[in-house]
Every structure is written in C-alpha cells, then in structure tokens.
Amino acid sequence: MAGSISHSECWSFQNTVELLLDNNEFTGPLPDLSKNEKLVAVDLSRNRLTGGIDKKIFELKDLLRLYLDSNELSGEIPQNFGNNKNLEDLYLNDNNFTGKIPRIEDNTTLQNIRK
C-alpha cells in the first residue's frame, strides 16, 4: 500500500483496538489517533511518514505498544510520553528526532524503548 494516510476515514473508527499498518509505503504526517480511545497497539513502522509526533497519542490510556520506527519522523519526542502508565513498548528508532529523550516517570510499565 502507498500514499498519504493522514486524512483517511479509518482514523475515526473509535472501536479500533489494534492498528497494524507496518511495512508499507505510506507518506505524510502521522494521523490523529487521539479519538481512538480503545487503541492498545499501533504499528506504523517501516513506512515513509514525516513530521512530528502529536503529544495526544500518549494520552491514550489503554495504549500498550507504539511502533513508529523506520520512518522519516522528526522534531522532538513529546515530553509527556513517560506519563503513559500502561505503555510497555515504544519504538522510535531509525527516524530523524532531535533533542533528548524526555524523563520517564518511575511508575511506568515501559519495558522496551528504542530511539
């Protein structure tokens, strides 16, 4: 699959639990997933997504796994990523991020992080 995914209607499916669209040729910015409150896993790795990460994605309280590695994302990693108490896996490696990794709260369940 290829093309932009930022304005797709699929982001409005509020009962989506897993969004697994890895290893495609998607381009453009990350879609706004903040309305998908039931998301547990997002895998958009190995695409050609650009731009930054909206801090709202880390406010999804049920999110356990977020894989955004191997894209062309840039900017700073949002400061609030360590506040998500349920996030276990966060893969951000092989992108163009700048700055330092934000502080991780002591009571997080984060087990795997790749930057």
CATH top level? Alpha Beta
Estimate percent helicity.
Answer: under 10%
Termini distance? 26 Å
- The computed structural class is mainly beta
Count of separate structural domains = 1
Strand content: 25-35%
Structure description:
This protein is an all-beta fold and 115 residues long. The protein has a single domain, classed as Alpha-Beta Horseshoe (Leucine-rich repeat, LRR (right-handed beta-alpha superhelix)), CATH 3.80.10.10. The protein has no helices and ten strands. It has a five-stranded parallel beta sheet, with no helix packed on it. The protein has a five-stranded parallel beta sheet with strand order 2-4-6-8-10, with no helix packed on it. The model has no long low-confidence stretch (mean pLDDT 86).
Q: Tags for this entry?
A:
single chain, 115 residues, mainly beta, Leucine-rich repeat, LRR (right-handed beta-alpha superhelix), 5-stranded parallel beta sheet, 0% helix
Give the topology:
Layout: E1 2-4, E2 18-20, E3 25-29, E4 41-43, E5 48-51, E6 65-67, E7 72-76, E8 89-91, E9 96-98, E10 112-114
Parallel strand pairs: 1-3, 2-4, 3-5, 4-6, 5-7, 6-8, 7-9, 8-10
